[in-house]
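Proteins fold reproducibly. Take a tokenised chain:

. . .
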Amino acid sequence: MKGTDLYKIHISVFLFGFAGLFGKWIYLDALSIVWGRVLFASLAFGVLFAFQGRNPLKISLKQYSSYLFLGGLLAFHWWSFFMGIQKSTVAIGLFSFASFPVFTVLLESLFFNEKWKSQYLILALLSLVGISLLLPDLNWSNEYLQGVIWGVLSGLSFALLTIYNRKLLPKSSAIEIAFFQDLFAFIILSPFILYHVESIGKIEWFQLLILGTVFTALTHVLYISGLKTIKARQAALISNLEPIYGLVFAYILLGESLHWKMLLGGVLILLAAVYTSFISSDE
């Protein structure tokens, strides 16, 4: 039902907003955080399948190739997401990532042969102006600039993931999609991580466990399953509550603050996302 799917999207976005703080809490590099995240998410799904008596591995070679691609895309999305936060702040990372509804609304029209609207250019302009306000200067040595660029790349990759997930849902369950994306992300990242896995301490392992089960496996399934009746661009709109949740959590738990220019840039990016709801409501 559409109402239930809408609640799933909202709950997942709330949890996603909290997940960004782990980029500051876990004293590991971004790639190691993502690896641990998808490791425990994959294990959580494996336990679920075992209780259900299901063997999810019995799928076609074509499905495996699709999931391999999406696993790589997911790995890049989360890596760039945590890179954006670690290079700058939770606020800048989340605001930059919040540009993804603009990418979604532009790309979804191409993937699903849906009607192109001139308002999409307004969305792109608003978002670009907002992103420019987040930039302190154009010197690559400035870590805030690096954070914004990584955040935007995270937004672009998440837009592609959202669209591809919508295409897969008619033929695959949300749990299956989430499981294989996490599993292949884990496999792809493992060669880069295994040589220093011994350096991960007990506290970091526990943090990765919480991040992988609650804020990844559960959240991933809720978000993907919500796409059964919710359009990708509408889900993208709701997802722009994520920076709001993240800002509140970062202010309370990390003591982060914003200056007016960054706040204005974030507001413009969010306005671009909100505008997608008016476009979607006309269809």
Notes: Residues 123 and 272 are 5 Å apart (CA to CA). Residues 2-281 form one domain. The chain is about 80% helix and 0% strand.
